[in-house]
Batch of 4 targets.
Target 1
Amino acid sequence: MRPRANTRKFALNKDSERIRRIQTSLEMNHWDALVCSLPMNVLLITGYWPVVGVSVAIALPDRTYVIVPEDEEQLAKRGWADEVITFRPGSLDKITTASKALLDPLRSVAKKLPERNCRIGYEHDATTEPASYAAMHLYQGDKRQLLHDAFSSPSLESADQVLAQLRSLKTPDEIAAIATACKLAERAFLNGARQLRAGLTELEAADLFRAPLSIALSDFPELERADGFVWCMSGPNSALASGAYARSRTRRIQTGDLVLIHCNSYVDGRWTDITRTYSVGQPDQRSTAIREAVFEARAAALAAIVPGVSAAHVDEAARNVLRGRGFGPQFKHSTGHGVGFSAINANALPRLHPASPDTIQEGMTFNVEPAVYFDGYGGIRHCDMVAATKTGAQLLTPFACRPEELILPGE
């Protein structure tokens, strides 16, 4: 395992490797076009992360287009689409919908394709989409009708599996962007840990960790958008972190508590999924035993990560340690999942799950999150971000990763 994160400088520029992979996918699937509207897929295809969700990316074999609202044009030009086409999703002239307003721009691109029976890959199935703004537009059922109206008798084919595979294998530039998002999270964790103490509410504690994320742009001028989410769950509430979501409450942190901090930071659409669990004051014998087991499981999982190994084997490496320590039933979720174009998506490849059919491949980025939860007592989860390299796991979150670093003063 490499000890340090990727130091490649992240900059918004043309990702030639990503463009090549998109073109190869078009050729292999015999598609005349790949059309996507989910922001994470627009980002994948064009390097631009849409704000409100009405943008559309269209990849042709020799050219890429992105159709965006007029007020997103300058942001979109920082991507690598060959042409940025603008439209007005709404106006004071009449009440309309984004789907209706998008039709003419789509038709302008459709003229580049064969007049009849063109084959188009598009998003079809349900998915999980990261939040790019306070409210997001999703075209949903309008997609098929829009494509039929814009293109002449198209043959529409689901591109979901192809897109999932494309998102799972990151380019060097994309890994560098994710590493930058991890660096932002590192600053947030170190800042918050210095101020975390008994007497704070979970809400107040979470705010200490989140504040550095919300002001990150002042120190990273090359970024356009950076921020994230942080939750704090303490004492018996930390046992509830095994659920589908985290929630900070008004409970006051007490000396002796386990304090679980979960963070999803992002930079320009590339996400992280990171957790650290602190002991406020000297830990008792029980929590010490749990933490030792979680760290042993973490080491086993990281050591198991090499290209070609099954994702289920990585899950088993962590799970076997916790079973041997007597905590098997208390490890209530998978060991990890893909992270990068999404933050929390259990179906993002690779799935480190007991029943996973996935294989670890070089370029995959994902979390490793062994954990133990005891209802009514507390929980410890340690969630790192890693990238799979030719030789093993590259740790993208090399901070607060020794047990003694997670023990804080009680007052």
Target 2
Amino acid sequence: MSRKSENGQKQSLTILDKDYLEWVKQLSSRYKSYLIKASVHINSEQLKFYYSVGKDIFEKQIDNKYGTKFYATLSRDLRKLLPDAEGLTEGNLRYAKRFYQLYSDPKKLFPQVAEELYPQIFPQVAEELPKVPWGHHRLLIDKFSDNPPKALFFVGQIVENGWSRSSLMNWIDSNLYERQGKAITNFSKTLPSPTSDLAKEITKDPYSFAFAGVTKEYNEKQLKSALLSNITNFLIELGSGFAYVGKEYRLQVGKKEKFIDLLFYHLTLRCYVVIEVKMGEFDFQDVGQLGGYVVSANHILKREGDNPTIGLLICKSKDRLLAQYALESSNQPIGISDFELEKLYPAKVEGLIPTINELESGLIDGPKDG
């Protein structure tokens, strides 16, 4: 099989095996068909192409058949047939196989899910993957090739938050996967499904308040002031969907004035979130106080269309068993987490909120090699 170069000379493909030549020809045709659609959905179609290439290589064991220089050879041969194509580098073709391996096995992606549910949930993976730029995927492959659920978790976070590649790296370094949805809660008992699961997922344990810059002796008032002085970073740490309402938020309850530490509204859950920050160790009475605030917010603030208010207590430390017992005693939806002032939060905050240009382009760190 050969083709003419720009100077008119014929260029022969490197491997002359009949099956290989036919397959490369098929890949060339497949790539051209993807390019037709790529003018509108370039990243999505490019990723579908990489996935299909990886599937071919893995299932047919083509790389084992043609030896150690296979990827360099395949890249060279594809570019002979497609001289104007981008992304057909040796590196990208190697990643294509790993890309397919990482996301193709539902048993590895969803180890805790019953096998009969795979047909219902696996299509969601196919929908999410093309929304993430290739550069992000390469990073996830490098980091989590042996941990598909963790890779898939960050795919969802990238889609939801529009992270750049540097932002993704920062959140990986902050142990977000290990912290997300880990607060001790009674949501399954106090909220209807699936709201209870969604509410659980908006929590973290521990929360990192390193951005507040508190390094000396401090009290609760100073810590709250520091958090609100860095409100952008505070909202980033809380997660997407939180809208700030106010601090020391006043509620008139009968003849008493009550003041909520920090009041937020969650746009996805469509409910108020009462956050209390406690300097010391958690104890039983903390749940009673927070529960009172939650009930008061429901009576005074909650409007038609709003879901029940959620309470979140963020304390310096907690005994997990004590926290669990306390939550069993309450019929209000409450979560309990720790906070830390160092270690976890990314040292580099720049890039955690996408720029206007990044949002408009929709192709942050697009499908290039490197």
Target 3
Amino acid sequence: MSLTENRPVFLNLFRIRQPVSAVVSILHRISGILMVLALPGLIYLLQTSLSSPEGFSQVVALLDGQIARLFAVLMIWMLAHHLFAGIRFLILDFDVGLTKSVSSKTAWFVHVCAAVVAAIAAWALLFSGASL
């Protein structure tokens, strides 16, 4: 029997169950990439708002909609997840929490903390009537 006979013919990545620490790592990378990609648009909005009173009014009108609020909640979740996962990875770099059980618990802690921060932001932005 050769090595090629033992290889899978079809590998469905959506059926493979990743450990929670792998999911945290993947989401950490994705959130970092998405935040970097959002920077030019956010810088443009800042530049427009500072250019003139009319520009400020345009940005306020743009950010006053529900879509902008949902985007803000998503950005807050990405920032919170990236921050908490980054702190977790820094702690792991000091060889703390490398066992499977502790690593799993800290990964779940990252998910829960990011979700709580996003839920608070969603409540504040979407349901309390607060403005951006």
Target 4
Amino acid sequence: MQTDEAQLRQLVSTWMNATKSGDIDTVVGLMTEDVVFLRPGKSPMNKKEFAEIAKAQSSESSPEIKGTSDIKEIQILGEWAFMWSKLSVIVTPADENTSMKREGHTLTIFRKENGTWLLARDANMLAPVQLAN
């Protein structure tokens, strides 16, 4: 049996891989029903809004998404856990040669439900980064 920390690291890995492959159902399945995403300059987003936006962006003309998550700390407190990480995401539209990179830190709170860790709250401070030519 994996430790709680190993399960949380696996959740992050699964999230990143599913995002890259466009597997929206897997990503949405890693969230609690009452998940809240805090975004800079925008109103908080819930699970339904996340799924709608993600599905609208997934098609044959979907952008290519590459990302890395460098986990800096995980703390587990019973049925709750938090993690902060440095996240880097590069999005390349299918019909363009230009890419957009955003990176920054995230603070994520997880909740264990029926023995499974799920993402419950997420605050990210990703900002645009100039790509080298």
